[in-house]
Every structure is written in C-alpha cells, then in structure tokens.
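Example record used in the benchmark description.
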Amino acid sequence: MAHPIRIALVGAGVFARDAHVPAIKALGDRFEIVAVYSRTRTTAEAMLPLLPGKPEVFTDLDALLGRQDIEAVDLLLPINNLADATEKAIASGKHIVSEKPI
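Model output (structure tokens):
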C-alpha cells in the first residue's frame, strides 16, 4: 500500500473507544486516524490519548467532511443521527464504514 487510508471517527462514544479504535489500531499501518468528531469538544478530546498521532478535533461535521485529505469516515453515531451523517458523507465523496445499519 502506498499510504495509509486517512480516516475520521465520526462519534467518540463508548463503542468507538472500546471496539472501533482497537480494531483500527490492530490493522497497523493500513489506516491513519486523522480526525475525531463529536457534538461536544470534551468528548472528542477524551479520545485523543487513545489515538496515535495528533488527530484534529471537530464539533462541526460539515467542516470535517470538507477536508479533502480525509478519505474515509467511520460513522459511530446514534441511530437517530446516522441517516443525516451518512447522506452528508456520501455527498462529500468519502468512503464509509458504518457501525449500524440505517
């Protein structure tokens, strides 16, 4: 692989912390987590010590999706927020990993 896939975590709750982050890290250098989104800055920042590198924190999903260097998003939101976030991610041209079916 020429470079790791640059991925953003969209959601920073328990399942992101306990399941997705360990799984992404277990894949070694295939992925680079470059951003974390949460509705609250405090929740997103709480993820940072668990992540390699220095991911950027976002509380504005549109701003995160506007970053051209992010290739994929891992959608980890509650069901009631998932459809809207998925539509926005599709419109932004990002690849999508979704924790839940919508």
